[in-house]
Write a structure and sequence with these properties.
Blueprint (H helix, E strand, L loop, with lengths): L3 E9 L6 H11 L5 E18 L4 E6 L3 E14 L2 E11 L5 E22 L4 E4 L5 E2 L6
Parallel strand pairs: 4-7
Antiparallel strand pairs: 1-6, 2-3, 2-4, 2-6, 4-5, 5-6, 7-8
The structure holds zinc ion.
Length: 140
């Protein structure tokens, strides 16, 4: 699918807010239907997921304490007709070691977020047999 660039948003999330929910809310409020997301900051007690292919579900790892949000990348598209953010993170501990995965939730200490809106045909997630909710794959 081809898209053109829309609006750019850059903002800081208030301390104490849950990051995934905040980004979803922001996208809905600002009518961002498709886009890319990136962020840096610090999260408290983040939960990250690892998809178990054979069990068709996420194993959720609950990290406790404060983690550097070294990198966050993700996208926004439609799921059940609403803006939906899919987000992956690399989180650094106090020794600089990284944890990584699908961000399930995380309380914000600091989060500086950048969203690039994309304009074009709607991009919709649909449930797949593998247990994931994905876009249709694009044939060459
Ligand atoms: Zn994921």
């Amino acid at each position: 699918m081809r898209f053109s660039k829309g609006r750019n948003f850059m903002f800081r999330v208030p301390e104490g807010r849950e990051l995934v929910g905040f980004i979803n809310e922001f996208a809905k409020k600002n009518n961002v239907l498709i886009g890319t997301v990136s962020a840096i900051g610090t999260l408290r007690n983040p939960k990250i997921g690892y998809f178990l292919e054979t069990e068709k579900k996420y194993k959720v790892m609950e990290l406790s304490g404060v983690y550097e949000l070294v990198s966050l990348s993700g996208n926004i598209s439609l799921k059940d007709g609403e803006s939906f953010a899919h987000i992956h993170v690399a989180l650094g501990d106090s020794e600089g070691k990284l944890w990584g995965g699908h961000l399930v939730e995380g309380e914000v200490f600091v989060a500086e977020v950048y969203i690039q809106e994309l304009l074009g045909e709607p991009l919709e997630r649909k449930p797949q047999e593998n247990g994931l909710t994905l876009w249709d794959a694009e044939p060459l």
